[in-house]
Amino acid sequence: MDASKIRNFCIIAHIDHGKSTIADRMMELTGTVSAREMKSQLLDSMELEREKGITIKLAPVQMQWQGYTLNLIDTPGHVDFSYEVSRSLQAVETAVLVVDATQGIQAQTLANVYLALEQDLYIIPVINKIDLPAADIEKVSAQIVNLLGCKPEEIIPVSGKTGLNIDQILNHIIHQAPAPTDRHETTSETRALIFDSYFDDYRGVVLYVRIFDGQIDKGAEIRMMAAATNGLALEVGALTPKMSPSSSLSEGSIGYIVTNLKTTREAKVGDTVTLAKTPANQPLPGYKNVLPFVYAGFFPVSNDQYQDLKDAVEKLALSDSALAFEPENSPVLGFGLRIGFLGLLHMDIIKERLEREFGLDLVITNPSTNYEVTTTDGEHLNIRSAADLPDQSTVVEIREPWVKGEIILPQNMIGGVLNLINEKRGHQTNLSYIEDRAVIDFEAPMANLLTDFYDQLKSITSGYASFNYELADYRAEDLVRLDFLVAGNRIDALSLMCHRSEADALGREITKKLKEVIPRQNFEVALQAAIGAKIIARETIGAYRKDVTVKIHTGDRDRKAKLLEKQKKGKARMKRFGKIDIPSEAFTVMLKRN
Q1: What pLDDT sits at residue 422?
Q2: Could you say which of 210, 306, 311, 465 has the lowest number of CB atoms within 10 Å?
Q3: d(CA 176, CA 378)
């Protein structure tokens, strides 16, 4: 295939600005998919994607238009998958930037534009949803001109729903966008970038690749350079969007390789594929190992389901190389797994998939991030939950991850959002304006954004703000482990790390909540929050009281006192031997603080 007749592009946008709908219209217009097979959001194949209306896994598709081969990658918009987005941008030369005519530029629009500019891509600005009554094309055009420095007439106004002007985007890609050969120096070695991989139950690991140099033939022995594993290219071809096999994948093209590998850990996103017989000297730049930074304990409601949970997570991990997990045991919840995620949306999706696809009933403990601890012996530890923290007397310092965040919001709502950032121990680093929008850059500790920062941001700004973040670094802070005791027993699964200045308020708030969800017993139960041996908050769940004096019909005070005294002794004995059932709701009170 002549590389000058190939155009590789992706569509980038904020969530719900119409990426997948525009991709649908392009496939219809180019005749890639017949009207009979067409359904909305065709590339979002997962049930969850269709229900939430978001793209979770990217999907490539090849189209033919006026004698040119167009390779489109539909990328996820959400911040948790930004590494996948950056790899997809590396695989293409052109980015179609879609902005909603009713909402204007949002946080992930900005984040993705920066990623595209970093990869030095040719950007085509598009305003979508111009047929809606609330569309404000002039205002949104001014925002785009301000952001990209382009001319207003270069912006293509389209409607993804009706298909208006979609052909203009395709023509612009053919005539103005660069071909693969214009952008990259080629060598005689064979090198291809893996921008996605997934596990197929029947065929093994399937790689989505962009060939930069050389070609890969069907049946060739291939090597993954970063993972240092070898495999076979059992089948190669293009996606239209179904798999269409061919004899080889040539330079400049995007396609798939079916391998004989057993797990995506052997072929991670960002790795370079080369031929095992004549390997390349240098891998393609930009590969990094993605590390999870949100951890949560997943426990089955009944312990009989532990093996099912383990099997289910192993199956999901086959196709999601970012999923890290290890067994965990809790005296209250029994056996479970501690799972690492890229962010809260990633966690939400895995939880939904485990409950739906595998029919599991789960209890999820408070999500936490990872901390770096230095002990008095000079040892450096990486801990993932408060329960792993060594004795406080042996700890020299604890470093927690901080994130760089960016919030885009209407100008009249800045005050409330700055207050929220300060409440979360964060601080604003910059404030700038794009037309009628304000952009707040800030830094804050990751742990404080985990629980309900996003919900509070949405409620303060009536849903108008959008938020994007990335990991900045680890900083030493005055952190303590906050423990919760129920009837004198420490419950490890409820322990959490927090800043010393927040410990008192948090201890009081959570003991109050636990008092509401833990049922009353036949004896009095103390709920306490403690830092080490020091109790900082206490609530008491009163006992059920049986009226033992009901059978005394006379008003004899002494007889009543005697019976009540006898009952009190019995209750004291019960208290000593009593075991309390803690309902699973007690663990979810931590997830939503207010």
Answers
A1: 92
A2: 311
A3: 59
